[in-house]
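Q: Hi! First time asking for a complex rather than a single chain. Here are the components, and I think there are two in total. Is that enough to go on?
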Amino acid sequence: MNLTRRDLLAGAAALATTTSLVPWVPAHAAEMIKLGSILDTSGIFDAYGKPMQKATELAVAEINAAGGLNGEKIELVSYDTQSDMALYTQYGQQLARQDKVDVVHGGILSASREAIRPTLRKSKTLYFYNVQYEGGVCDRNIFITGVTPAQQAAVLIPNVVKDWGKKVYILAADYNYGQITAKWVTKYAQEAGGEVVSTDFFPLDVADFGSTIAKIQSAAPDLIVSALVGGAHLSFYRQWAAAGLNKKIPMASTTIGVGNEHKVLTPEEGNGIRVAYNYSHELASPTNQAFLKKWAEKFGNTDDIHELAVSTYQGVWLWAEAVKKAGTQDRMPVIEALEADLSIEGPGGKVTIDPKTHHATLDVHLMEFQDQKMKVLEDFSQRPPLDTQAVCDLQANPDDNQQYEIKI
Amino acid sequence: MDLAAVILVEILYAVASLVLIGAGLAVVFGMMRVINLAHGEFMMMGGYATIVAVNLGINVYVAMIIVAPIVVGLIGLVVERLVIRHLYGRLVDTMLATWGLSLLFIGLVTMIFGNTTTGISTPISGLTIGAYQINGYNFFIIVVAVILLLAVFAVLRWTRVGLVARGTMQRSDIASAIGHNTSRIYMVTFVAGSALAGLAGGILAPLVGLVPSSGGAYIAKAFITVIVGGPSIIAGLMSSAGLLGVVAQIFTFAATPVVGEVALLIAAVILLRLLPQGITGRFLKGRL
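A: Yes, that's all I need. Here is the structure of the assembled complex.
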């Protein structure tokens, strides 16, 4: 390129003009507590992200309506990452360095969490990840309020082995969540006296399960356990029902229903599938009824509430309670308040932070799909995050910073 | 024995679904040499057309076999008039334009239907073969694929329209010199290809959870089938779908679906190394 002095000057002038167009952002606007939210509210993961964003807004509005925290209102700073992992890095930096928020809630996929976790740790910005995930993250700067595989499998698997039989066939998504979940399912099936006849893994874009369905039948299991993930894998449930097998071989799952999939399947396709989660619309507790009412008042319709939205809502409230208890939004006092066995009563039941792992001890409900609803069969109160507890102890090693692969 | 029957049905089903996925592209790419990267999105829109029609109370078979091809055929008509007709003979430009179209369609469908998984149940219940239960809908797909091949063959081989279309694709200058309106023939052929894609999307809709980005799952398989097949439309489609479907299913049964997909791709690579012009570039030359 041939650059003359005139071009250079013109370019520099243009650059100066554009810089001055960037709005000036005050470093510390008034005395507000800042809560950063970073979620995919558009793109392929928006079915998860949109209700989570709504849950954050609802919790913040409630806290502000009640007078805020320690007399200060919360300002919500939200970024839409558009289901693009690269934007997590960018907006994560922005939240930490430019907006200087007091806490960040968000991240959906494990990849998105790992994209921002190092940034937030380095910049000493408290981080809440409010999603069901594979377990094992050990970092004093992060709090994780979703269920982990051991919490689900410990409740679900013994129950279905007892009710349906000993031969278990596992189908799982072929990435770390599916691999790890399959191991926990195997462990609990064996402990319950069952045996795993086969475990099959599927990449996320496999949508044709005809041969798998034939293979399952030749293995003749008493039940199947599915940890399949995403839209393409939803075809499995449909093809399974189309072959008429949903009436012959019962199914349990650790994943279906998290994104309200039970409302996409018809009652004939979905009925009878057993799951274990922290939340169901059908929970009769007064906290849940009040939550549904508030959601309906703010957003009109409660159909889009799902497990992850409730985790997010509980995550924001856990943080808020800790800020109240600490009397400040500063990071270390809040972490210490959370580590002092802090708990709240959320829509899904009591949630307590486990000080060793910064994961949540929570109620897990055994449920069955019934006419596009999750009917609660049994409640298991206060299940600890056993998987992460096996590898992580932040009280002994407060400087630990990694995601462990849990050996089972 | 029962298992053998089940495997046979699954193999036939795999071949039939490749035929369905590839048919529309065989017409658009195989005949017209238009690289339609929006082929997957045409199928996806056929799926949505079916689901919308079924939700409006239209019989599911009518929705799949009539509504979906008509809707996607009309979309194809608009696309051909606005974009494709300016780009005949410019391979790279059509690639770019149709890729843009595919992004546009994904965006539009997302805006209209949202980015959530939708679907309908299969209209045919499961069948019992000995000790096994299989999806009765597989048979429907096999039957549709056979009828589709016969129909396309009949039109191209025995009707005047088919003859003129084939002639135009080979030498449009001569066709035009004899007095045929080649621009219109190209248009009709493209619409027919789009309608076939819509039909395939409609027929496969009950088997999958449909999202606006579902087209991506079809596009690679469609191109592989058509390119491996080579210049002849029917013979190429049948031979490559047959070969690739059998290879994929055998490996799927012997190992896992992942290995099956890998085997399909490896088979395609080997075939193209040995037969760069596709199967019908060497065998069955000059057939339809």
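A: The two ends of chain A are 60 Å apart (CA to CA). Let me know if you'd like any chain examined more closely.
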